[in-house]
Every structure is written in structure tokens, then in C-alpha cells.
Design brief:
globular, alpha+beta, 81 residues, 3-stranded antiparallel β-sheet, 2 helices
């Protein structure tokens, strides 16, 4: 997977503002992510951008494990050079 980059070479990022999960009747896990791509979205002057995703319970478990692992690594490396 290749990361999207800005013209200056830095990673193009958005700030996650809200996340909501639901379980669909067919046992799929649904997720709605709301995020800010520009400063006006951070202040509320412009609505947040959003995406709705659906995945199997197994994929949701794998994603959760990856997020937890990354969060623990990020917390561990805070203050390290």
C-alpha cells in the first residue's frame, strides 16, 4: 500500500474527529469515521468529511489489533529521539 503525499513530500493526513461503530443484521461490522482535512473543519465552520465502511467481524478484530499495537508503539516512543 502506498501512502498519499503532499507536494512537499510530507504525508497527507486528516484528523479523526469522531468514530462510531454498529453491527449490521448480517453480523458485519459497520464503522462511520468523521474527519477534518482543512482548518475550517476543525473550527466547525465547515462540516466534517466522512466515510462509512463495512467489514467482517474477523477483519474488524484484525484492524483493532493493528490499531492497538500502533497506539502502544506510539505511546512508548513519545519523548524518544
Amino acid at each position: 500500500m502506498e501512502w498519499e503525499r503532499r507536494s512537499d513530500g510530507d504525508l497527507k493526513m486528516a484528523i479523526l474527529r469522531n468514530a462510531e461503530m454498529a453491527v449490521a443484521p448480517d453480523q458485519a461490522v459497520a464503522m462511520r469515521l468523521e474527519y477534518a482535512e482543512v482548518q475550517e473543519q476543525m473550527t466547525g465552520a465547515v462540516p466534517l468529511t466522512w466515510i462509512q465502511l463495512v467489514m467482517s467481524p474477523e477483519d474488524a478484530e484484525a484492524l483493532a489489533a493493528e490499531i492497538l499495537q500502533a497506539a502502544l508503539l506510539a505511546r512508548k516512543t513519545v519523548g524518544e529521539a
